[in-house]
Specification:
Layout lengths: L1 E7 L4 H10 L6 E7 L8 E2 L2 E2 L5 E10 L4 H12 L10 E7 L17
Antiparallel strand pairs: 1-5, 1-6, 2-5, 3-4
Length: about 110
């Protein structure tokens, strides 16, 4: 089992959700976050150092079984990338091992709980 965390542009949320649904991945957690990466605005303005602006982003979390990892990654990349082949700020995908998953309602554990 893996936990996929994707940071994407807010306007790409619907496209990414649909791409995941098309891969039979329908359980996703969405959070609105702010941050910055390489797409920082200027850090020097009129000779004074300024703090980079925190930009709105979307954080998706998807807990999936191993067989769905690559299809999920490919779907997110295709849907979240800008139409012109990608640009700075399109986002990041993190894939983390997930030791356990427990469904609270039934007590199921492991892949069945995902």
């Amino acid at each position: 089992m893996k936990l996929i965390i994707a940071i994407i542009q807010p306007e790409k949320l619907d496209a990414v959700r649909q791409a995941l649904i098309d891969c039979d991945i329908s359980r996703v957690t969405v959070s609105r976050v702010t941050g910055h990466g390489q797409q920082q605005d200027i850090d020097l303005y009129r000779g004074q150092s300024i703090t980079p602006v925190l930009l709105p982003k979307i954080r998706l979390e998807v807990a999936i079984n191993d067989a769905f990892v690559e299809p999920a990654i490919d779907a997110i990349i295709q849907a979240a990338r800008k139409d012109d082949g990608g640009r700075i700020g399109d986002g990041k995908i993190f894939v983390l091992p997930m030791d356990q998953c427990i469904r609270i309602r039934t007590g199921e554990r492991g892949g069945e709980a995902v």
